[in-house]
Design goal:
This protein has 3 helices and 7 strands; from the N terminus they run E-E-E-E-H-E-E-E-H-H. It has 148 residues and is of the alpha+beta class. The protein has a single domain, classed as Nucleoside Triphosphate Pyrophosphohydrolase (Alpha-Beta Complex). Strands 1, 2, 3, 4, 5, 6 and 7 form a 7-stranded mixed beta sheet that branches. A hairpin with a 2-residue loop joins strand 2 and strand 3. The two termini are 25 Å apart.
Length: 148
């Protein structure tokens, strides 16, 4: 059963009214997602969010808030996803970064553009995190107690 449970992180990064997103092809279909990915065994959750954002976009970010914990079930794979949503500010872009080969490309999108493409979102968590962010339902990072 443990291989049917996945702990993931996703990061909302806004700059000048645009959100950092990625396009990736999953099961033959291109989808839109926030920079997101799996937490590795033994890895700090916050470090995972920073790492995944960099690996998928080339952006170095600083976490500024926590959006919450979302669970979803994929009926096709039978996997339950536990998604921790973070807010971050863009610090620096590294044009020489090697982007994860699973990512088609990163782009900046307005909320309106994302809304116009709801059928292309990788999961309901994408818009849920954005809506929480825009409603300012953001928790302070101090809620994390890290001993790693």
């Amino acid at each position: 059963m443990p291989n049917k449970i996945h702990l993931t992180v996703a990061t909302i990064v806004e700059r000048e009214g645009q959100f950092l997103m990625v396009k990736e092809t999953k099961f033959g279909r291109q989808v839109i997602n926030q920079p997101a990915g799996h937490v590795e065994p033994g890895e700090d959750i916050q470090a995972a969010a920073i790492r995944e954002t960099f690996e998928e976009t080339g952006w170095v970010v600083e976490l500024t808030g926590f959006l919450g914990f979302l669970t979803s079930f994929n009926e096709t794979s039978g996997i339950t996803y536990y998604r921790l949503g973070f807010v971050a500010k863009a610090v620096e872009f590294d044009a020489s970064a090697l982007i994860d080969p699973d990512i088609d490309y990163a782009l900046w999108m307005s909320y309106e553009e994302i809304q116009q493409n709801l059928d292309q979102l990788r999961s309901p968590g994408v818009i849920s995190c954005l809506d929480d962010y825009l409603a300012q339902r953001i928790f302070p990072m101090e809620i994390f107690r890290n001993t790693l």
